[in-house]
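Methods — Computational structure assignment.
A single polypeptide chain was analysed. Its primary sequence is given first, followed by the predicted tertiary structure written as structure tokens.
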Amino acid sequence: MQIKCLYTSEKFSNKEQTMKWYNYLFAFLTGMFLANAVPHFVNGVSGNEFPSPFADPIGKGPTSPVVNVAWGLANILIAYAFYYWGKVTFANKTMLLLFFIGAAIVSLMLASAFADKLTHYK
């Protein structure tokens, strides 16, 4: 399935650009991974322990700040890869919307999952 959109960008200069469905999926995933990077990176550089996929139990126990910084940076790299390979451009309003929807979904999931993180390992 291909979706045609008209947008302006320095890259494409007012040309009609045909985007494939996976370009929109990559915009969504870019938002998700970028939003997931924020709490891990911020807690890590602040010197705080924070749950991560490498904790015991997974996602519940504390993980060292260094591991969280590494996990945050890995998420940023993955988000950039999706951005680059998906030819994501924010001049395309649909991609911009999907980027923010992906970021919002992960942000709300993380807020819910980590709301009681301090009670798990205090």
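Note: Residues 50 and 118 are 9 Å apart (CA to CA).
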